[in-house]
Design goal:
Number of strands: 7
Oligomer: single chain
Number of helices: 8
Largest sheet: 5 strands, antiparallel
Helix content: 40-55%
Strand order of the largest sheet: 1-5-4-3-2
Order of helices and strands: EEEEEHHHHHEEHHH
Distance between the termini: 32 Å
Amino acid sequence: VEVRPAWPFRLPGGSADGLMRRRGAALQRLLRIGGETVLVGIVQPAPDRVLFAARAATDEAAREGIARMRFATGVDDDLRPFWDAYAGDPVIGRAVRLNRTLRVRRKPDPWEALVAAITEQLIDFERAVAIQRRMIAALGYRCPTSRLRDAPAPTAVAAQAPARLVSFDLAPKRALALRRCAEGVARGR
């Protein structure tokens, strides 16, 4: 799928948790959608063109993977209203003017955003990322072909004893909260 960004866009680097990888000029991300493995690649051959491609067993899963990564990269966001409102602001105006391509980093799956919110509370970012990486390595899915990983599914986290989650350096109360949330998400709540 070729996308023409509505506002200046620059392909971001990989993610701190290691799930989105930069390989040369391309970004790659492995997703599991409905139990199906989807490998999404993104390149930006020109400032006004971004190409998304996906490999999956079904076209439906490939399209969903591309849609999720379009959301995660923010390629479709038109930031003109924000620019108009804040480019002249005395506090943030200079930063807004200097980096027109800046986008909010998003996760392609709401469950991943919830895990990040729980693990990042009350600790520094580097420690939270280390916890997330340990959880991904121990509980996440690894594609044998691409060797990329996807985040642990809610069912995988819900199946863990709280002590196992604490062993990743998560605080005991956060481990209990994460497990309860995983159980709820796994049940469809």
